[in-house]
Amino acid sequence: MPFPLYFALDSLLTEPGRYAAGSEPGALGMLRKKLLNFLSSSSSYSAERMLAKLPMVDLYEERALILSKLGQHEQALMLYAHRLGDANMAVDYCERCSPEPPP
Q: Whole-structure pTM over 0.90, yes or no?
């Protein structure tokens, strides 16, 4: 992730849990949407280094995407279920990450 984007997000963070990530009004929503897209689709960053750069509070969806890339599915699921309190996101995550059952 480009570091200026991180600093811009950090300075724009508002009350957590008020909006879904990427749907916040103004610049924050636009930047988080770009960040989420980058984290989920790009392989041109070190997940370990990115995780170390994220704050321990806020940016939980971003953290869950990185944890998923690192194979730390239980921790990612805990963020969706407990930190974000979103059962639908937790179920969607399980469906995305679960291997297909054999025929």
A: no
